Amino acid sequence: MKDYNEILKEIAVAIEPLRHVGHQADYIPALAKVNPDRFGMCITSTDGTVTAYGDMEERFSIQSVTKVFSLSMSLSLKGERLWSRVGKEPSGAAFNSLIQLELDRGIPRNPFINAGAIVLADVLMSELDDPLDDYLSFVREIAADKSIDYNREVASSEREKGYINAAIANMLKYYGNLDNDIEDVLRFYFLQCSIEMNCRQLSKAFLPFANRKTDFIFNDIRLTSSQVKRINAIMQTCGFYNDAGEYSYLVGLPGKSGVGGGIGAIYPGRYAVATWSPRLNEKGNSVMGMKALELLTTYTHESIF
Ligand code: GLU
After folding, report:
1. For residue 165, which of 152, 179, 178 has the smallest C-alpha distance?
2. Which atom of ligand 1 is the closest one to the Cα of 194?
3. What is the C-alpha radius of gyration for the chain, rounded to an integer number of angstroms?
4. What is the Å distance from ligand 1's center to 158 Cα?
5. pLDDT in tens, 105-151
6. Cα of 3 from ligand 1 centre, angstroms
7. For position 212, what pLDDT does the model report?
8. What is the rounded CA–CA span in Å between residue 33 and residue 209?
9. How many CB atoms lie within 10 A of CB 18?
10. Ligand 1 atom closest to residue 117's alpha carbon, by position in its atom list
11. How many angstroms does the Cα of residue 192 sit away from the middle of ligand 1?
12. Which residues approach ligand 1 with their CB closer than 6 A?
């Protein structure tokens, strides 16, 4: 068994020169207030061992990482019928591209770009009795932590400036791919993105995707082992926006990033890992986080490839 403790320390030294590289997301005003010079990392192994480094107890806005939870719930509730509303191809375009959605006539390329996740929010609004409560209880259950919550200030700050997401929702409605009221769907989507976790909680929440020997049952949400495999495949091909190829090349672990600077990733059968560092590259992915994961698979010689 690798000594992840030693490896995390080596990674921390190696990535230190990147501490001030990149810019934090500031198009969501509340995120612009976060100290950008943070770095935290946590590995939760399938045997329950937790190995952490740096600012791993500080909570951050998980943003698009939440799309993995939305997909899990939607796939559990709709099964294969989900794919008539959203595709599963890498987008090769920015996470908030309007042009692509128009070319695809309102069927988002995949569930991990904004348009795809807004469709999932719509699906969940139609399927769940109490979407806001049910969503949060699923996330709390999968992370085994009842203290996890929405950050309503971040959500309303995003709504205030969320012009592109509003345009995406309008275009989805125009093409008949949104059943509920546009404003209600956006409110739900922004709240999902505003969920806060620290690295320890996020790695715990990703563990069920790494550990396919244990049944995936959280509240009423159940996924077969085959469905979990497929979610991991979509993380691998679509989890890093138009940086997904580069991320696969460098890291080689299914994962999902968010503009809050968080990343959740898994090594099947072995561990789930979370990193957080707010400074992003030009594609919207955490600079230190991506490098840390690249070094993790390099130093451990463990990756899915
Ligand atoms: N709430 C963000 C948005 O919709 C999520 C984007 C992301 O993390 O990629 O713009």
Report:
1. 178
2. 1
3. 18
4. 9
5. 999 999 999 999 999 999 999 999 999 999 999 999 999 999 999 99
6. 34
7. 79
8. 32
9. 18
10. 4
11. 10
12. 63-64, 95-96, 114, 158, 165, 193, 258-259, 284
pLDDT digits (tens, 9 = 90+) for 261-298: 999 999 999 999 999 999 999 999 999 999 999 999 99
Give the torsion sign (CA, 164, 256, 224, 188): negative
**How many whole angstroms separate alpha carbon 94 and alpha carbon 156?**
23
**Residue of 208, 237, 266 lying closest to 72 (CA atoms):** 208
Distance 252 CA to ligand 1 centre (A): 23
Look at 52-66, 105-119, 207-221 and tell me which has the smallest mean pLDDT.
207-221
Gap from CA of 221 to ligand 1 centroid (Å): 24
Probe residue for ligand 1, chosen from 27, 193, 281, 290 as the CB with the greatest number of ligand atoms within 8 Å:
193
Cβ(217)–Cβ(227) below 8 Å: no
SS (H, E, C) the chain: CCCHHHHHHHHHHHHHHHCCCCECCCCCHHHHHCCCCCCEEEEEECCCCEEEEECCCCCEECHHHHHHHHHHHHHHHHHHHHHHCCCCCCCCCCCCCCHHHHHCCCCCCCCCCHHHHHHHHHHHHHHCCCHHHHHHHHHHHHCCCCCCECCHHHHHHHHHHCHHHHHHHHHHHHCCCCCCCHHHHHHHHHHHHCCEECHHHHHHHHHHHHCCCCCEEECCEEECHHHHHHHHHHHHHHCCHHHHHHHHHHCCCCEEECCCCEEEEEECCCEEEEEECCCECCCCCEHHHHHHHHHHHHHHCCCCC
